[in-house]
Amino acid sequence: MQDERTEYRGVYVNGEFHDGVDSFRVENPATGEPIATVAESGEQGVDDALESANRAQPEWAAMDPADRGRLLYRFAEAIADHAEELGEVVTRENGRPIGQSKGLADSAADYIEYYAGLTTKIEGETVPVPGTQQAFTRKEPLGVSAQIVPWNAPLLLCCRGIGPALAAGNAAVVKPAPEAPLGPLKLGELATEADLPDGVLNVVPGDGVTTGAALTDDPRVDEITFTGSVSTGQTVGKTAIDNVVPTALELGGKSPAIVFEDANLEGAVEGAMKALTLMSGQVCFATTRVFVHEARYDEFRDALREAVESVSIGPGIENPDLGPLVSEAGLGKVRRYVEQALENGATALTGGRTPDRDGYFYEPTVIEGADDDAPISREEVFGPVINLYEFSDEAEAVRRANDTEFGLYATVWTNDLGRAHRVANGIEAGSVMVNQYSGSYPQTPFGGHKKSGLGREKGMQAIDHYTQLKTVNIEYGDASDGALDG
Fold first, then answer.
1. What is the domain count for the chain?
2. Could you tell me if 451 and 251 are in contact, meaning their C-beta atoms sit under 8 angstroms apart?
C-alpha cells in the first residue's frame, strides 16, 4: 500500500512511470524512517518491460552506431548535470556519505561516456581462408539484457552494465535492489530526457522472489547480468543455463591486503581505512583481511587503531567518514560475526560495538587474533570490520591470501618491483592493486576468480560479453566451381 507521507515512484517502462501490482517502502538507514513508497513490478511489470524492450531493440540496433553514440553522450551529460541530485537520492536510500555518492554519480556518467565512444568501434575481423573465399566476423547485439543491480552502488553498477549493453545495440531491463531503487529509477527518467528511444531502458523495482525471478526466468531475456551474493548468483546462473543465455556474475569477496616490511606504511594504512569506511565496508572488493609482515606489524596496528578511532560517524547526508549500514538485518549480521569472533578468542583492537544512536550504525572495528579458518576470516561480513594477521615471509603471505573460496580483489604494498610482480602474479584474484586501494576505471576489466563470479565487466571485454559473434564465409570464385553467380 502507498504511504501518503512519502513520495511515490512507479515502475519505469517505455519512457513512463506506471503503477505496479503492489508497493513497498524505502527507508533511510540513518533513521529507520520511510522516505519513499515504490511500486512492486511483479510479473505484470516485468512482462510490460520486456514487451517494451523487445519492441524497441531492433530499431535501436539498426541505428547508425554514431547516432547511437551521440544519444549515449547526451545521456552521460544528463547524469553529470544531475550528479548532485542523484548523489542525494542514493545517500537517502542506502546511507552512503554524500561525498561518496556524488563521486559515484560522476563515475556513472563516465561509464556511459566511455561506452558512447565505443559504438563506432565494435568491429569484426577478416579471417585468412584458402582459395576464392573471404571470411569475416561480425559482432551483433544479443537482444534484451536483464540487469540485476545491488543496493550498495546502484548508480555506478547500473551504468557499468547498461553502458556496454546499450552501446552494442541491446535494450535493457534493470531490476534494482528494493533497498535502493530510487537512483536507478531516476536514471531511467534521465535516459528519456536525453532522447533515448522509449523502451531501450526500463526499470522494474521489486524483490527477488517475484520481480527478480519473473525477469530472469522469462524466455524473452537474451542475457543476464547479476551483482550480489554467491547464493543468489548461483540461482541466477542455473536459470541462465536452463534458458541457454549468457550471464555475467559478480559475486562476493574476501579480499586480502598484504603489507610487506618495505611498504609505505602511511599509504597502506590509508588503503585499509578506505576499505573500512567506503560504504561502511559494504563493498564486494573491500580488503577486509590485512596481512602485515612481522617486522612492521606493531607499527601498522598502532597507526591503524589511531586512524580508526578518529573516524567520524553519522548520517550520510552530513558527509561523515562512516555512514550507517543499509538495514537492520545487515547490522545484525555484522554484530553476530564480531560477537562470535570475540567469543572464540579474538580481540577487538578498537570498535566492536553499536553506537547509542538512531539508525543502523556500527563502530568501525579492527579484529586481531582470529584464526584463518574462523567464519569472520572466511565469510563476507559486509560491514566496517577489518581483520589483522601477522606473517613472516612472502610465500606464507600469498598462500594465506589465496586460502579462500573467493578471488575478486587484492592489494599489495611493497617498494620492491620484483616482489610486486611475483605476488600480483601469484594471487588468485581478478584484480590486484599495487600500492593503492582502488585504481579502477571504465576501461579496466573487472571480475572475479573462483566463487567471486563469471565474466568481466568494464573495458572492451564487456562489449564482447554483450555481443554474439557471427562468421560469414563468401565464395566469390567462378560459378563452374560451385560459386554463386555474379
1. 2
2. yes
Angle at 161 between CA 160 and CA 165, to 5 degrees: 125
Q: Residue 430: which CATH number? A: 3.40.309.10
State the Cα angle at 277 between 84 and 287, rounded to 5°: 120
- Domain assignment of residue 383, yes or no: yes
Q: Which domain holds residue 304?
A: 256-434
| Cα 461 versus chain centre, distance | 16
Quick check: is 327 in a domain? yes
Q: DSSP states of 205-247 as a string?
A: ---IIIIIHHHHH-TT--EEEEES-HHHHHHHHHHHHHHT--E
Per-residue pLDDT for the chain (486 aa), expressed as one digit of tens each?
Answer: 455 557 899 999 999 999 999 999 999 999 999 999 999 999 999 999 999 999 999 999 999 999 999 999 999 999 999 999 999 999 999 999 999 999 999 999 999 999 999 999 999 999 999 999 999 999 999 999 999 999 999 999 999 999 999 999 999 999 999 999 999 999 999 999 999 999 999 999 999 999 999 999 999 999 999 999 999 999 999 999 999 999 999 999 999 999 999 999 999 999 999 999 999 999 999 999 999 999 999 999 999 999 999 999 999 999 999 999 999 999 999 999 999 999 999 999 999 999 999 999 999 999 999 999 999 999 999 999 999 999 999 999 999 999 999 999 999 999 999 999 999 999 999 999 999 998 779 999 999 999 999 999 999 999 999 999 999 999 998 755 544 444
Q: Is residue 357 part of a domain?
A: yes
As a dihedral over the C-alpha atoms of residue 314, residue 319, residue 323, residue 324, rounded to 10 degrees, the angle is 70
CATH number of the domain bearing residue 186: 3.40.605.10
Query: How far is residue 168's CA from residue 57's CA, in Å, rounded to a whole number?
Result: 11
**Whether residues 173 and 298 fall in one domain:** no
Q: Judge if 287 and 233 occupy the same domain.
A: no
Q: Cell for 239?
A: 536459470
Dist. CA 103–CA 100, nearest whole Å = 5
Identify whether residues 244 and 262 lie together within a single domain.
Answer: no
- The x, y and z cell numbers of residue 156, run together, are 555506478
CB atoms within 10 A of CB 84: 13
- Is 188:201 a contact under the CB 8 Å cutoff? yes
Integer Cα distance of 109 and 91 in angstroms: 17
* Residue among 179, 250, 363, 368 flagged as catalytic: 250
Question: Of 418, 434, 450, which residue sits at a domain end?
Answer: 434
Are residues 53 and 147 part of one domain?
yes
- Catalytic residue status for 250: yes
Do 245 and 283 sit in the same domain of this protein? Answer: no
Number of helical H runs and strand E runs in the chain: 15, 23
Is 481 a member of any domain? no
Using the 3D structure, point to which of 226, 251, 276 is the last residue of a domain.
251
pTM attached to this predicted model: 0.94
Do 43 and 179 lie in one domain? The reply is: yes
